[in-house]
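Narrative summary of target 7.
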Amino acid sequence: MSQTTSIQSRDPDWISTPLKELLNLSWPIATSMLSYSVMSLADTLFVGRLGSSALAGVGTASTIAFGICCFPMGMLRAVKVLVSQSVGAKQPASHVRAYLGAGLILALLLGLMAVFVGRWLAPWISGLTATTEAGRCALQYLTIRMLQAPFFLAYVTIREVRYGLSDARSPMVASIAANAVNIVLDAVFILGLDWNVSGAAWATVIASAFEMLFLVAGSFREGLGIFTCRFRHIVSIVKLGFPTGLQFVLEIGSFVVLAVMISALSEIQMAAHQIALQVVHFSFLPAFAVSEASSVLTGQAVGANRDDLVRRISALGVKTTTVYNGFCTLVFVGSAHWITTLFSPQVQVQVAATHLLYLAAAFQLADGANMVYRGVLRGTGDVRIPALIGILTAWALTPPLTWLLGYEAGLGALGAWLGLCAEIFLGAALLRSRLARGSWLSAAQRSRIELSITGTIQSREDPVCNDLDSSTC
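Modeled conformation, tokenized:
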């Protein structure tokens, strides 16, 4: 019998209640993501009291900091897929810890590289802002903020493992605790010690370190797998994660270009963009959480050799994001102006941000579907073509339309967001088509074969382990 046909089919534990499992995974992930959004929101609210220059500078620096970490973040997302596929295939606990250890090694190396890149880029930031003062704030914030990278990426690795094990609650608790620490430190450093934007940066760094240590202490008392992983585990993460990491960094690169172009227009436009971005996180991040949960369930289905469940998971994910984002659309349309007044007393900023929220109300339904399709395809192991779709739509539409509509047509940040809207709609249509055609089936089969080979080698090295809950592995 061939290796392809010898892979046994199994029913996942959630086979009779997939929607319940999707929601049980999604809401803690959404809470974690919203907690991260509140962390950024707290920084924005505290920094906003320092003036539009500080707000614009921190907005520019935050976008660049996130962009620098996007490649390692995208690569480390492979850990979740590999762990979830191992769970679906009922492989032993030693496999999970091996992927955890390999991910942590990559997180440390990539985190140190990110610190170096951030320090190297920081002096160039002042030339990307509309005023000298905004540039000074951006430089000051980014130089400190990048110290967060090793802690943040280590947390991402551990979080992805917990997600793959269907445990979304441990990362949620860690995120909420870190958010509380960040808010307290923002108040102490910015208001109490008068550290201004430096205080916001240090608060984020310390909160990220706390978040990582909190999750380590509560999740993996039996070990982190750093000394037991093998080179093949690192190779598996890189092989699966590299296309996604490249997609992330190039897509965010496109978004960074958008932010820089808006920043160069005026402080008013950049402040409006930063406010609208913070508000949209409350619709984007829960939809992203459903995408992550869909990816976990898809990975478990593929590991169990139940490809017939993949489209079902996709449909449930899209319906879930449509319901939630539909509610957010009503909120944005009815309350956009009131929301913007909470962030800035300047009428010009309020008007510009309100227009952006109206546009966000129009595109977020497609954005939710876009994210779910990506998550599902990633869970099958189909990463290369979806990554190419994301890269091409991001660069072919968003920067050119930002220039055409934002600069030439004089629409400012609204023109830039119209380009973003076009990217989202086209990307969702192309990914939906790929999922419907079954173009991911060969990738799912390859994932099972590689999982089977790796599992055979691991079992020979550690034959004592026989279940994912064993504390002796």
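Residues 398 and 419 are 4 Å apart (CA to CA).
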